[in-house]
């Protein structure tokens, strides 16, 4: 199944099931959001509502209001190599905030304080039920589904000190979408390639299976230090090929189009605009 969060024509937030070129609304007064449906465990039992033409609907980030967005840094060996960093024994974890995310089809915002606005194509997972101190062997039971993610990064701000967060969570700098895709839509997750294109040029292209720390390991590690709730998001890291490490460096600027494709999970597309 594929689920999307969106705005109705009257502007109110809703969610539904993406069926080809249509969206079947699933929201009710009791279950107004995709996050609420995950928390209730009611997603598969909700009754179909109004059907909308997908092309006429404005999408929201897959989960518009996650309580936690945790990001894994340096999770592909090629990316570790290009940064010149030492491979550590544990995942590097940093955070983003919900207001840093935009949906598929919406513009990502280049902050005025940087000229080093970089792309990072990633696979994101969405947590489907409360998860605390989860063993890796049980971790798949806590995954509701997957989406594409662009961890847009102000590289200079990222490196003001040893913590990444200041460069990672400017408002409107990250893309998340288009849909929450459940496991039944995916034949072999590890074989799917995380691909980033900037203005049509392929710049990142590695399979999910190249991760240093796989998804169960990441869930075990993260849930050991913080309880996870339905709707929480984990971005699992970017492959090699980031713009900051190219010669010459290649950064996103106003007017650019960036696309993150992950096989059957779909393609996240965003234009870049300057901060107003």
UniProtKB/TrEMBL annotation:
Q: Which Pfam families match?
A: FAA_hydrolase, Rv2993c-like_N
Q: Which Gene3D superfamilies match?
A: Fumarylacetoacetase-like, C-terminal domain
**Which GO BP annotation is one of this protein's?**
carboxylic acid metabolic process
Q: Per the database record, which ranges form the Fumarylacetoacetase-like C-terminal domain?
A: 68-272
Which GO terms label this protein's molecular function in UniProt?
hydrolase activity; isomerase activity; metal ion binding
Keywords attached to this Swiss-Prot or TrEMBL record, sorted alphabetically, are: Hydrolase, Metal-binding
Q: Does Metal-binding show up as a keyword for this record?
A: yes
- Top-rank taxon of the source lineage equals Bacteria
Q: Which residues form the Rv2993c-like N-terminal domain?
A: 1-29
Q: Which family does it belong to?
A: Belongs to the FAH family.
Q: What is this protein called?
A: Fumarylacetoacetate hydrolase family protein
Give the organism, scientific name.
Answer: Sphingobium limneticum
């Amino acid at each position: 199944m594929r689920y999307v969060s969106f705005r109705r024509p009257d502007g109110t937030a809703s969610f539904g099931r993406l069926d080809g070129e249509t969206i079947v609304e699933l929201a009710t007064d009791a279950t107004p959001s995709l996050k609420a449906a995950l928390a209730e465990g009611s997603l598969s039992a909700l009754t179909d509502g109004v059907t909308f033409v997908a092309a006429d609907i404005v999408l929201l980030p897959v989960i518009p209001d996650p309580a936690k967005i945790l990001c894994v840094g340096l999770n592909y060996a090629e990316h570790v190599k290009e940064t010149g960093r030492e491979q550590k024994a544990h995942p590097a974890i940093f955070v983003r905030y919900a207001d840093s995310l935009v949906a598929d089809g919406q513009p990502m915002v280049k902050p005025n304080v940087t000229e080093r606005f970089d792309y990072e194509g990633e696979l994101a997972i969405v947590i489907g039920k409360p998860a605390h101190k989860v063993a890796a062997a049980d971790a798949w039971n806590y995954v509701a589904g997957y989406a594409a993610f662009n961890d847009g990064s102000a590289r200079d701000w990222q490196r003001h000190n040893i913590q990444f967060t200041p460069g990672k969570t400017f408002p409107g700098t990250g893309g998340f979408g288009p849909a929450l895709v459940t496991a039944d839509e995916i034949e072999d997750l590890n074989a799917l390639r995380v691909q980033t294109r900037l203005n049509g040029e392929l710049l990142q292209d590695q399979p999910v299976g190249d991760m240093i720390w796989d998804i169960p390991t990441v869930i075990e590690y993260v849930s050991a230090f913080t309880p996870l709730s339905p709707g929480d998001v984990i971005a699992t890291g970017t492959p090699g090929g980031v713009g900051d490490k190219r010669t010459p460096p290649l950064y996103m600027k106003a007017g650019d189009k960036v696309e993150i494709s992950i096989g059957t999970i779909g393609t996240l597309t965003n234009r870049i605009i300057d901060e107003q």
